[in-house]
Design brief:
This protein is of the alpha+beta class and about 110 residues long. The protein has a single domain, classed as SH3 type barrels. Helix content is about 45%, strand content about 25%. It has a five-stranded antiparallel β-sheet. A hairpin with a 2-residue loop joins strand 3 and strand 4. The chain is elongated.
């Protein structure tokens, strides 16, 4: 605590007649700039990624080969509202959530 108060005393002595100048906008500018940078580097790309994943999951149909986020490979046997039935081996079917689908391995069919 003593070091902190000594630092404050030193800081105030270094600027004897300094008064805060400028408006609140100039004080908030660095924070606004950081938020804009975070938005374009972190938030926006994540939203785009989520949108692509949602579209991919909506296009799932029976017969598609998929891989889950847990690394399980399988074939889609049925699609319900909130989950997918996946065949992972002969006579072995599991239900997974739609969010756990990592990728579709079946290439999309070309429409001619």
């Amino acid at each position: 605590m003593m070091i902190f108060s000594a630092f404050l005393n030193f800081f105030h002595q270094a600027q004897p007649g300094a008064r805060p100048q400028g408006s609140i906008l100039t004080a908030m500018f660095p924070f606004i700039l950081v938020f804009v940078i975070f938005y374009f580097l972190l938030i926006r790309p994540q939203r785009v990624k989520q949108k692509k994943h949602r579209e991919m999951v909506e296009q799932l149909k029976s017969g598609d080969k998929i891989v889950t986020s847990g690394g399980i490979y399988g074939t889609v046997m049925g699609v319900q509202k909130d989950r997918i039935e996946v065949k992972i081996a002969s006579n072995v079917k599991i239900d997974i959530t739609k969010n756990s689908v990592a990728a579709i391995l079946t290439p999309p069919k070309q429409v001619k």
